[in-house]
Fold these 4 entries.
Entry 1:
Amino acid sequence: MFNIETVKQIKIAYIGGGSKGWARSLMSDLALDERMSGMVALYDLDFEAALQNEAIGNLSGNGKWRYEAVSSLKKALSGADVTVISILPGTLDHMETDVHLPEQFGIYQSVGDTVGPGGIIRGLRAAPMFADIACAIRDYAPDSWVMNYTNPMSVCTRMLYKVFPDIKAFGCCHEVFGTQKLLCEMVKERLGLNVKQREDIKVNVLGINHFTWVTEASFRHIDLVPVFQEFAAQYAETGYEPSGESWRDSVFHSAHRVAFHLFETYGAIPAAGDRHLAEFFPAFYLKDPEKWKFHLTSVGYRKQESLRRKKETDHMIKQKQGAALKASGEEGVNMIAALLGLGDLMTNVNLPNEGQAANLPMGAIVETNAYITRNRVQPIFSGTLPKRLEMLANRHISNQEAVAEAGFTQDDSLAFQAFINDPLITLDRADAERLFREMLSCNQIGAR
């Protein structure tokens, strides 16, 4: 028997339930949490992958959670208290086109899932998928809280609201956490103080996903922005790497040189990794990633990782092994608990702008802090971006709105306008249109 004061029986619908990354993290975090129990309905277009996660999930933890692969969105969503969306819009072959076909035209991308030619085409693929998901949530789980982890975050979350305006959805991203961890390292090095956990660094977050900025930061009574100014100046040329670490250790690591340069340029602390930040500007950083000490993550690497995870999954099934019980560092489970009234939480989320980002367009999906409590996600007023950052953010917001509309209506003309408006598209119009058409063709998307 569970203590009813600490444990609530709930249903989680997991769309993308065959995931070998995010789903396993959720399994681990749910097993480690003592406040909740219930069932997780795993829906995936790859039903076999969902069945594998059913087996792994039911071997994880102490049996508080029951996992079940289901064959339809209706079965997954019916009765759901919380819906998690974590899908790959398309395939890794599609993503390979997103990232590497533009290289034939001299355009390089470090991630290719948010902005740039890759992010735009991925958004066009994702928009109709998220329209279908929104319709299903409206029909089968209209009161469910919806947590989206899928990129392009802004386009996908915007589509949910576009199709179902009363949806209770928000986008979740961990990039700000990395900035908080960097500030912890800075406090230790420059002030000689240990920060027990990244949450002890208080930040005012403002912007759009992966182009997010910290305009205020503190630890206890200490204003950290002036400290960061000195920190960034010290490591602007060399980059910052804690002792024993190297940006070359992982394709996802960097030495923060892009972030330091952007702080010196704009006066706000960038709150995303260098790989994401670099793509929001003309190819200033992307033309020489070695100089700036970050990676262009190839889709070939992602495919190798996918094969490794498939082998790992087969081994886990054969050995009847559950997910490793190790905290992921994500906040999804704490968010769910807060929504259930089991502990309030202040964190960063992506929501339609109701004024929390004062100088960004109303209704656009913006990322700011929010207070999560029982059955409520309340965005926190975060002030205004510096004017020069506002101008850059608005350009991308305009594109994201156009991509959501074009993906939903299959309007190639509108999609192309967003495509050529992206800062990474520096081609003449004829070459830009040729690249656009080739990418659409490879993805089998476009006007019907």
Entry 2:
Amino acid sequence: MLKLILTGVWVCAVTLGSVYYSMQSASAPVVSDAEATRRASEQYVPGEMITVPVIKGGAVQGYFLTKLSFSATKEGINNLRAPLRQMVTDELYDMLVGSRFIDVGDTGTFDLPTFKSTVKDGLNKKLGGEVITEVLVEQLEYLTKDDVKRVANGQNVPRQKPTAIVDKNGNVANDKLPEGGVSASSGH
């Protein structure tokens, strides 16, 4: 009987020791004071789905669908003259309609980091300061005019697989492309 009690005490001591050790070694990552201050001064701003016509040679060739979200400074947001989401959407249209840095017809030249930095710089220029700290890509898609017509008409034609937008390093900008073909979702 005494042996059984001592064995139980030993098992409890070993269990408590292992739990204590694992809690000590699995501590939260250390965040510097500067990083913590920066994070506390920023706010996540969800973006809206927008559809931008891709214009070449004076004609619409297709549609670039994107949903971008942003990390922005709280102070910068509070100093704006209009709501941030509406200002961002307006500036994205100004920047992207007819823009030369979006050539989705040639997916090998699309550079996602350059796209994100160009959007960030353009937005900050319009907002009058360093308001946007980071651009987060939630969705990037390209639909040709034929794709849009087929989806709008509800035709049951076998669909082509969508073309992933790949940057020059081979990274896929949107890795959640639908299996069966072009997405039927629409933007604003």
Entry 3:
Amino acid sequence: MNNNSKIKNCFITGGTRGIGKTLVERFANDNYRVFFTYANSTVKATALEQQIQEQGLIAKGFQVDSRKPEMLSQLIHSIITEFGPIDLLINNAGICEDVLDVRTLNMSDFDRNVDINLKAVFVTVQAAIMEMPDRGRIINIGSNLGDIARNGTMVLYSMTKSALQGYTRAMAHALGKRRITVNLIQPGPIKTDMNPDDNEKADYLRSFMALPEYGKTEDIASLAAYLASDAGNYITGSIITIDGGMNA
């Protein structure tokens, strides 16, 4: 891999599909050395690496279990040791589980959602900020369901995404003197292979939206790129919802 010191380092969790894949592609094209994690999709991760490297750009995937914080922190430390500090951290990995009857929820469900949607964010931030340069960037990816729970089927998901709001705001203050910005992007319905715009819930979701159409993964990546750029220097502690007006 290219060790050119002029290339900034970007670390993205959950980078092989949907929003995460587009984030990897966008920041590689923006001349970042991109490191991304994935849980199981080794074939997709390898294909993404090759796709980007064939363009003369830099990306490397790492298989990590987000429920094992020591794996995440060790990975970040090893990247910092070999390639230097992480300039941009994007916490994108997460799980979203429908539960038709909340009476079936148990502590294992609670722990799984908290571990992946919250604890992993805490761990990556703690590891990255030890060496993150002044004016670094942290972007957390949440959900518009952190603001408004449209139904009772995603109790734990909404809980964890709401918690990200408080964490993001507090960390913005904690890191402000170092001019490190911390922001939260809250996507609404975004068209992906796992969330097509013709699924059984699509018309129901569109009924709440001012713009009755699903967003694109590029919409999220473009906003993240703006926050990571010099144009985003003065934006921190912000919760930016991008959902076609669903929560308006």
Entry 4:
Amino acid sequence: MTFTDKLKNYDTLVFSAIAFFAIYLFCSYNGVGISPDSIMYTSAARNFVAHGNLHTFNHAPIVDFPVFYPTYLGIVSFITRLDPTVFGWWLDALMYAALIYCSGYIMSRFVPTSRIYKWLVLAAIILNPGLLQVYTYLWSETLFILEVLLFMIVFKQYLLNHAGKWLIFAALIAAIACITRYAAITIVGTGGLILLLDRTLPIRKKIGHILIFGFISISLLVGNLWFNALHTGTVTGPREPSITPFIKNLYYFGTVFCEWLGFTPNMYFLATTLAIVILIGFIAALAFNFYRRKLNSYENLAITFALVYGSFIVLSSTFSRYERINPRLLSPMYIPALWGYTSWGLLFLKRLRNPKLRTAVAVVFIGLMLGYITKIFMIDHLRYKDQIADEYGNPGYTDNDWKESKFARYLKTMDKSIFKSNVVIYSDAHEAVYFFSGLSSYLVPHKFFPKDVEKFFKTKRFYLIWFKNLEHSEIINLTDIQSRIKLKTIKDFGDEGGIYEYDGQNQNVQN
């Protein structure tokens, strides 16, 4: 092995160490960030270790999310004998370091390749505010994004010789990814699309490989969804129709890229146009590679995944309601999109015959990349100052607002015997109730489901733990409840919320 070959690995290891340190810095004040999703994963992981099942804190199987990430946390917890909230930061740091190593490995095999290009892009990946946010929380994207790159590495091996073992290996990675994030169906779509477009495969072999890949890659997902339907009556939990039209979702998609490019909000008028240009650009690049019969490169794999994933998020947001398109939701797309829109420059430079012109173009590219890296570094620095230097912490249930909350402190230390064991507890933030008190509770119903609302009001007796600062517009609020029934106040925390009881004997406010 030559010194140059060794350097391909050593420089990537240096960047991986920097990535690990970056996550350590952003988790140095209050540990890993904890969001409502994090609590769902954590409670399922705890039950996996304690009882061998994947039930959440409300004693129901985890359905809104696939089963692998909480299983993964549970396995690590069983081995280390630590809680996910304790080991979460270093697990995220290790996965971020692994992500950077995989990225460096892939870029070392671009055609053509460039060490300076790799260094600049690795820096842009490490410093991306969206990825840094994802990898400082207990979120399944941390594992899914790594699975995307592992799939690319293995599927590339398959494309080199069309060996069945590599196809099966790639399909197995896709299968695991599909039970990590439901959106991983885009990995299946990516592999299937490239197999379909691959003109080097004889038609009979192509059909066989598509069937093998498709069957294996969706097998675990089908099993997960079947289990959900069997035990809960829904395949992915209750889902509401979208309230955002296609054009609005395109705009939100574009605003994320505006943010990644360092644009200020007053430039978001470019968002829709930018989204259209980005997606059409990927389509054009894929068509060009199909025409050139160059579908087996890492660059093309990145372009195809970015196109499939981006289209899936925009379209699914148009038909199903979930969180608005944001950097977290599009984070799996960042690295492939970055490669797709920068790697062509290497080929362009190679084709330039004039050395002076080639040098000038390279200097311009390096200058643009350094400017971009500086821009996102300043965004990260501002986040570090706000959250770590000023001692606020990663926003979530472990930040200073919650640490200083009288309500949260009370829930941690209260005498739980005030709640009778046979009486159900409701809340507008049931995950917060569990995180602070360890009690199981149920979310008050969504306004969109009137039958659930009426069922709630027919409950003869219940407790209500209400966080005023977490009220959500899509669920019935405290005013709605008090307009129908009379609540007895058990504990009042003013603007923070309170604990209430309905005993079924209080006079109805509304008949």
